[in-house]
Amino acid sequence: MSTVKVNIIESLSEHHKLDLVELYKNEFWCNKRKMPDVEIMLENSDIIFGAENTEKRLVGFVRVLTDYVYKATIFDLIVQPACRGKTIGFLLMDNVINHPKLEKIEHFDLNCIPSMIKFYKQWQFTDDLGEIIHMRRHNEGNIKTE
User: Fold this and answer.
1) Could you read off the pLDDT of 3-51 as tens digits, one per residue?
2) For domain 7-142, which CATH number applies: 3.40.50.1220, 3.40.630.30, 3.50.50.60, 3.30.70.100?
3) Is 143 helix (H, G, I), strand (E, B) or coil?
4) Is 85 left (phi over 0), alpha (psi -120 to 50) or beta?
5) Are residues 23 and 80 in contact, defined by beta-carbon separation less than 8 angstroms?
6) What is the pTM of this model?
């Protein structure tokens, strides 16, 4: 696995936010996200990490929602397509799992596509939840499209 030089950051500048919206355009699960909603999302995320390249461009991102005791849910781990396979996703996940504010967390949760299961197993994630069933209510009427 090759590497690329990045700086891990815990807040995003205005140009990083623009980069994030561009990153989202690369994935089916987030390609309709727009800046006004992304700004609200960032304001309401408990922990964020970005990976900034040597040109100060955002090439990776992850965020966490948590109560800091029982649950932390990891969202939006995303890496620029040209930078995948270069340890950026690993660095972002490692920063989440080892963050001092998350050391007491009982359960970390995340959603992923099947091809990413092997990646997340590096941190002991499993899709065997016993009797727990993940459920979702799709509420498309609340998504802004402007």
Assistant:
1) 789 999 999 999 999 999 999 999 999 999 999 999 999 999 999 999 9
2) 3.40.630.30
3) coil
4) left
5) yes
6) 0.89
